[in-house]
Each structure stands twice: as C-alpha cells, then as structure tokens.
Design goal:
binds fe (ii) ion, 472 residues, three-stranded antiparallel β-sheet
Length: 472
C-alpha cells in the first residue's frame, strides 16, 4: 500500500487521485467539515499552536509525527490499515468466501446504517467536549483533550470516506447529515443516548474516555472483523487512535485517585471537599453513571439485529478469528443475565441473538482491569476503599433491565428504595456543583490543578512542564 500522501488536499493512503468522482465528493465535503469544526469544535482555541501527533504511516510502530499545529490546519485524511492478502469472510453464512471489496447489494441498507451509527458518535464527542478547554487542569491535559478531539474528527473522515466511496448519493447525503445533527439538540440529536449527555467537567471527560471511548473500541473491533474489507481496514487503523483515548481516560482517573489518596493521608480525612480534592465516593458515583450509560450503547441483550449482522458477515465478535469454534453459532448458546421477578438469573440463550451481551461481557472484563489498576493505587496508599463497577443491570435505559430498579450491587429493589438511595449511587446536583467549582483553568507549564496529580511522564519524551499548548 502507498504511504500517506500529504501533498494532496486530502491526505490519504488510498490513491484518492485515481478516483476523481470520490475525490470531488470528499473535496466538496471538506469545507463543510471545516465549518462544522469551527462552529462545534474546541471553543476558544482554534488559533493556538497545539503539540499534536499526526499519522505518517499506518503500521503499528512509528505511525506518528509530533509537532505544533493549529487545530483547523490538522491534516485530517483517509488512512486505511494495510490490506490482508487473500482475506476471507471469517464468520456467518458467507464464511470462506473472499472478503468483499464492494458492498454486497443485499446488505447495502444494513451496512450503511452500521457505518452511520458509528460515524455519528465521532463528531458527537467533539461537540460534547467543546467547552472543556476553558477549564483545563494543565497544559498537558489540554493538549490531550485536543488530540482526542482531532482524532475523533479523523474518525468522522474515516466513516465519510466509506459512505462516499461505496454508497453513492445516499452516502453523500448521510455524510452531510453527520454534520447536521448536534449532541443534545432536541430537534436533531445524535443517534445514541450517551452521545447526547453533557460532558461538563474534566472528571466527566476522563470517565467518558475510559467508559464511552471503550465502547468505541469494542464496536470498532467487531467491525474490524467485517467481511466488507474496506470497513475492516478503516476500523483497524481507527483502533490505533482509540487506544490513546482510553489511555487519557484511565490515566486521568488514576491521577485523580492518586491525588485523593495524597490529600486523605495529608489531612487524615476522607472528606476532601474542604481541601479541594475529589473524594473517592464522589468518583464512585461518576463511575456508576458513565459505566451504566456506556453499557446501554451495546444494545439489547437479545437482539435479532445483532444476529443478522453476524450471519450476514458484517459485524463479528471481539477477536472473532482468534476464537476456536465454527464461527456460525447456529447451534451454540450463551449465558445471558436476565430479570426473573425480583431476581437476576443467568440463562442460556441462542448465541446468535446474544451477541450484544457477549460483546458487553468482553467490555466489562476490560473495564474491570482498569478499575483494578486504580484500586492498586488506593491500596498502595494503605487506604481501605475499593472502586467497583456497578452491576450491569444498574441504571439501564436500554434492554431487559430498563424497567427494573437495581442497586449497584445487583439487588433488584423497589421504587421506594431507589428513590431513597439513588443519590448515594449517582452524581447529585451538589456533586456536580462541587466538581464545577473545581474547574478553574491552570495553564502555566508544569502546573496542575490541586485535584489531580501530574502524570508520570510527558508526551513523546517531552518533559511534563513542556509547553504543550502555546496560549500566548
Ligand atoms: Fe472515535
Ligand atoms: Fe475515541
């Protein structure tokens, strides 16, 4: 595959100049994207130099170049992972056929919907985060926010490329619509619930990167298994960018935990509000909220759509090709948690309709590994407290638990108990006001807000007190 061509108006490694029709469609979309970025991208920082990484090749080793860039001049483009020679459809009814280079006619509508749903989350998160720059806890964090933002912008480019290259006029209309919906807008909301929630503060931002971007990782990983090869190649490269977003989330929370522990030991109290820290109980409530809204993104536990995507060869399981089974799943079953009166029980369900739940299981296990690393920090400080993932049935709006009231420990409870206790489990207005009161910008190189510890190291070998964003 050709390297990335930066001499073109749209950087790409797909030989865009050989496809005039596509090139024109994308060049027509580019100014509309930039207009959206100016209107809905990071508020107040469009003219600042930011120390950003840009893709220079698509292999897992050194794909990145670091340097100062103004965000509107970021070289957004179209980067696909290397093609796999002789790749096949690896699951479902078409298993063993050559992977499709063109959209199979019978799956056109379904595939378009999958791509649009994924694509919609990318600009949505930029919109959700657009005011955070004004309250950054440090220049280091400000730069990380902007890196995430420009890469979500590039993820939008990745999905628009697929729509424009493979779906004709419908695809071009969808590409425009992706720039017209707005996160949280009553008339034109983003497609998925979690992407219409506010991200009003940095605790929410880090939780969002940890929980909601991780949903992105699992969706992209299962689309990377797709029999539609261009989708697979696109998602494989997006996953390398996604890894950084989850690092930002996990490390951000870890630094807040670290600071909380330091303050607890220094002041011999777990009430940190007098001391300007974020106590662990408040963090637990934010964790409960972001985890539960992200769990909803996987969809209903029992889903014929999920079964159809799989049988059609469009969306696989996480690490599909590493699994040792028939990759058809017609006879297989899978254990699914279900509500049975006032108890939650495990039942064996047909594996095909349980694929959403299976992906959610992979996701929960991954989240648990991150939470264990946070708890390690608490343990090392000799503090007797553990952050916990809430039960998957807690505070759900989608699927079989949506109608139930469930405590974070998995007990099915009455409405009365929920009303009496939910303020212990989810962020309260008081919590939100307190967190908001901490959101005072810190922009001197090497300085950090009092509620978060500095990172162990800087970006790309630079010192922690490097001028990651030039504000002057
Ligand atoms: Fe993304
Ligand atoms: Fe992301």
């Amino acid at each position: 595959m050709a390297g990335i061509d930066y001499t073109e108006r749209i950087p790409n490694n797909v030989s865009l100049h050989e496809n005039r029709r596509l090139q024109r469609a994308l060049e027509d979309w580019q100014p509309k994207f930039l207009e959206w970025w100016q209107d809905m991208g990071p508020n107040g920082y469009q003219a600042k130099d930011v120390y950003l990484r840009t893709a220079i090749s698509v292999d897992a080793q050194g794909w990145a170049h670091f340097g100062y860039v103004r965000m509107p001049e970021y070289r957004w483009g179209i980067f696909l992972a290397e093609p796999e020679q002789g790749r096949q459809v690896n699951f479902g009814d078409h298993k063993g056929q050559s992977a499709w280079q063109e959209v199979p006619g019978e799956y056109r509508g379904t595939l378009r919907r999958l791509i649009v749903t994924q694509g919609d989350t990318e600009p949505a998160s930029v919109e959700q985060q657009r005011h955070l720059g004004r309250t950054c806890p440090s220049l280091y964090d400000l730069r990380n926010l902007f890196q995430v933002n420009v890469e979500e912008g590039r993820h939008l480019w990745a999905m628009v490329y697929l729509l424009d290259a493979h779906f004709g006029r419908d695809g071009r209309e969808e590409s425009e619509a992706l720039l017209q919906r707005r996160s949280g807008d009553v008339d034109k909301p983003r497609i998925l619930g979690a992407f219409n929630e506010k991200t009003p503060d940095w605790l929410s931002f880090f939780m969002f990167c940890f929980f909601t971007d991780r949903d992105g990782k699992y969706q992209l990983a299962s689309l990377a298994e797709s029999g539609f090869d261009p989708l697979s190649q696109t998602c494989r490269f997006m996953l390398t960018e996604e890894a950084h977003h989850m690092f930002v989330g996990e490390a951000g929370i870890m630094r807040i935990v670290q600071r909380a522990c330091e303050l607890m030991r220094e002041h011999k109290t777990d009430d940190l509000r007098k001391h300007g820290g974020i106590d662990l109980r408040t963090m637990q409530r934010y964790l409960n909220f972001h985890c539960s809204v992200s769990l909803d993104l996987f969809g209903s536990e029992i889903s014929t759509n999920a079964a159809n995507f799989y049988t059609a060869g469009l969306k696989g399981r996480f690490e599909e090709t590493k699994k040792q089974d028939d990759h058809l799943l017609k006879e297989a079953t899978y254990g699914v948690a279900e509500l049975d009166g006032d108890r939650i029980v495990m039942r064996e369900e047909p594996a095909l309709v349980s694929l959403n739940e299976r992906l959610r299981d992979d996701y929960v296990a991954d989240c648990a590994r991150g939470v264990a690393r946070w708890n390690e920090v608490i343990r090392k400080h000799g503090i007797d407290f553990e952050l916990k993932l809430p039960h998957r049935a807690f505070h759900r709006a989608i699927g079989s638990f949506a109608e139930a009231r469930v405590a974070p420990d998995g007990r099915v409870i009455s409405q009365a108990e929920w009303d009496a206790k939910h303020h212990e489990w989810l962020p309260t207005e008081e919590d939100k006001a307190y967190i908001q009161s901490l959101m005072v910008p810190v922009t001197e190189p090497g300085k950090f807000a009092n509620w978060i510890a500095p990172p162990a190291r800087g970006i790309n070998g630079q010192p922690v007190d490097f001028e990651y964003v030039r504000l002057a």
